[in-house]
């Protein structure tokens, strides 16, 4: 422990610090840490239901609770008030894995529809997302064997606040279909990493339906906000998509890692992913009455991650979780207000959740390059102080600072201090 | 906590129980649990070096230490005594992910060699493993887009103790090459899940080299034993393979999840897996001097898993870790002795590590079906007692019980009690 304190801690980036405003926060709680601790001690590898019944049951229960919090249609749930649902969920490690497994299911479905055997038609399948979609989506497509030439990154612009334009999507999908390709999968993002842009889920699902393509919603960060009625409209239309993933390890107080994937028809996933080796055969599986979660993920082994999610929801309850989201959003609004009140700065895109994208405005004799450079220097100088940590992005060719509120220990005073530091550092640069 | 005790614990399969002999044990230790606890609290998502320098450095250090323990060639190490190595390691969640990412790297290398663009030649690539290889390998091949028709499962038999026969491998690879396919990847297993069979790493690497195919060694379970000189020969020839993975979460006291993947040329992996979105760009990455571990895995986010592995090695040291392996093997030997001394039973395959595959022998008027049924009933009756938990497999068409020693709290008395229970239960069936 001494070596840890003296040699390791000084070299860590302190994601848990209230002065951490970079990337997206990894929110945390005593309930989640306790859940992880107990799971570490139990150390079950619940790959099949039979390998640890309560581990699977609790994961399914926690996922169904979260689905209720998010007001997802019951078609995504494992159990409904009238019995077993057709949908299902699974806890994975990352959004990337959620994308990968649904891409594989979609690809199998497309090959099946076209009556193809094997992958001989794989080069004809095409996939779609906005250029603001996380880079990991395009990587997942390559991992799953899609032809890089058929992975479409559709340009976005300020007219849609960098969200995917459904008519552009239609245009691109139609052109591909006309050229003999098979439109297979569309990824819509609710709350992009770069600037928190929101793709219109319902409109995108309508377009995709024309081609029988799978629609996945990546709500890794902003999905957590959708437990509040005032943000839920961002998921409107979700009843028409095939799958949705969101990560409570980002904004729902559940420490790493916990990505929840829901699919409307669990069998479409497990048909592609199931294995049945002799050494895992058991009566429960053969009864067809249980869920074997290994058949909804890449690997076999799996930790008891349902426990921490269950403990977070059980400990805090709906109201407290909503308050947590609202408090972060209120702090982000306050920061946004500070920025707008200082005419040296601009807010670059509308703030949707708790991320504020801002920059020193181009002014006077500044060129665009000068403004970018000023913002780059601002970020470097801020981060060098060790008193705040921010990351950047590029939006519409402009270098932009991302101020992501929400680290679990953050209070108004930390946001205010960071703003004071930003003002002071900017004065140092601009004078 | 009360609800956990009353509603959840009774439904768990207690993997940590000393009476757990099923599957492979998930070994554990206070050091690993503490490492996980601290990592949960720090909650860093060290996707890039810059996102938490010490998290990456410690993971790399822990992996290099483990490589030294395993006497892997320095070509697999990130740092060598003379500076930075060309190899590298990464901690992943499962062996399946290690297989998937190396399959993708191998597939890109094969396409590159054949001058193909995109995946248009993917249907020509072929992959190889013994029929005893974990089913997750064949699944990983499908996930990566290999044509199911070109995924070869090579039959094994008692003449090689169910290990892959290198001359059969050569035959199959040559036939494929003659038919215009491109032999791309061979998976060799050291310690199969079913019966702990060992594929001959060196001989397999020699065959694969004739076709320029990637060789991966899956030593998920038995790799841990190779820290003892008396088991290290199972890795002979590893200097000629491209990658090797082993899981300290199985047999090296490091709780779930911790799969260590080593590759001989780290760039072959990162060339296939790297992403470089604007919001993750940073000076450290651009310097080329650091490792961004996100470029060696499926996803972006990652937990600080290096900490627990470092804490286990730091706390126990080489000698104690070797003693831990030897103590488990000694208990397995004792159990094997018990079985051999009772003529109602047989040991089905030679015991290589701490797994004993045994069964009630066919005798008297018993048919093969009767013997299988007797063993099935034995397992069911044993497990129903709640005093021991065993799993089964099928070896050479026979139903076989797997007695896997090694659960961390296990002592000789637990093995002895389990054997007494087995004898008594068998008497109940046979009389």
UniProtKB/TrEMBL annotation, chains A, B:
Phylogenetic classification of the source organism: Eukaryota, Viridiplantae, Streptophyta, Embryophyta, Tracheophyta
Cofactor(s) listed in the protein's UniProt record: pyridoxal 5'-phosphate
Name of the protein in question: Aromatic-L-amino-acid decarboxylase
Keyword set, alphabetical order: Decarboxylase, Lyase, Pyridoxal phosphate
GO molecular function annotation: carboxy-lyase activity; pyridoxal phosphate binding
Superkingdom of source: Eukaryota
Gene3D superfamilies membership: Aspartate Aminotransferase, domain 1, dopa decarboxylase, N-terminal domain, Type I PLP-dependent aspartate aminotransferase-like (Major domain)
Pfam families: Pyridoxal_deC
Family from the record: Belongs to the group II decarboxylase family.
PTM sites of type N6-(pyridoxal phosphate)lysine: 250
Gene Ontology CC terms, in alphabetical order: cytoplasm
GO process terms (BP): amino acid metabolic process; carboxylic acid metabolic process; phenol-containing compound biosynthetic process; primary amino compound biosynthetic process
Keyword Lipoprotein tagged: no
């Amino acid at each position: 422990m001494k070596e840890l304190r003296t040699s390791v801690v000084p070299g860590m980036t302190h994601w848990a610090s209230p002065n951490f405003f970079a990337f997206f926060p990894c929110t945390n709680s005593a309930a989640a840490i306790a859940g992880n601790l107990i799971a570490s001690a139990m150390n079950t590898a619940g790959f099949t239901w039979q390998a640890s019944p309560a581990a699977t049951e609790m994961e399914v229960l926690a996922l169904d609770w979260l689905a209720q919090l998010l007001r997802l249609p019951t078609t995504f749930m494992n159990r409904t008030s009238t019995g077993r649902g057709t949908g299902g969920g699974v806890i994975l490690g990352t959004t990337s894995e959620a994308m990968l497994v649904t891409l594989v299911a979609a690809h199998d479905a497309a090959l099946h529809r076209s009556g193809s055997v094997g992958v001989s038609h794989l080069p004809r399948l095409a996939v779609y997302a906005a250029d603001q979609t996380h880079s990991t989506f395009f990587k997942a497509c390559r991992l799953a064997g899609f032809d890089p030439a058929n992975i479409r990154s559709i340009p976005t612009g300020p007219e849609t606040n960098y969200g995917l334009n459904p008519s552009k999507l239609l245009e691109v999908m139609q052109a591909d279909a006309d050229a003999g390709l098979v439109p297979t999968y569309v990824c819509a993002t609710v709350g992009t990493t770069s600037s928190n842009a929101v793709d219109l889920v319902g409109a995108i699902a309508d377009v995709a339906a024309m081609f029988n393509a799978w629609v996945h919603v990546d709500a890794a960060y902003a999905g957590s906000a959708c437990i509040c009625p005032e943000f839920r409209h961002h998921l409107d239309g979700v009843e028409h998509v095939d799958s949705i993933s969101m990560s409570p390890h980002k904004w729902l107080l559940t420490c790493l890692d916990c990505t929840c994937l829901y699919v409307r028809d669990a069998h479409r996933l497990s048909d592609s992913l199931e294995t049945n080796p002799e050494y895992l055969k058991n009566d429960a599986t053969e009864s067809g009455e249980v869920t074997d979660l290994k058949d909804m993920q890449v690997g076999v082994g799996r930790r008891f991650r349902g426990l921490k999610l269950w403990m977070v929801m059980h400990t805090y309850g709906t109201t407290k979780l909503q308050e947590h989201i609202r408090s972060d959003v209120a702090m982000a609004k306050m920061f946004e207000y500070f920025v707008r009140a200082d005419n040296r700065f601009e807010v670059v895109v509308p703030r949707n959740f708790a991320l504020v994208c801002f920059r020193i405005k181009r002014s006077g004799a500044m060129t665009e390059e000068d403004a970018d450079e000023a913002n780059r220097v601002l970020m470097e100088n801020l981060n060098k102080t060790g008193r705040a940590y921010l990351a950047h992005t590029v939006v519409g060719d402009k270098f932009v600072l991302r101020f992501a509120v929400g680290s679990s220990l953050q209070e108004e005073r930390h946001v205010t201090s960071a703003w004071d530091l930003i003002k002071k550092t900017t004065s140092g640069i601009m004078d």
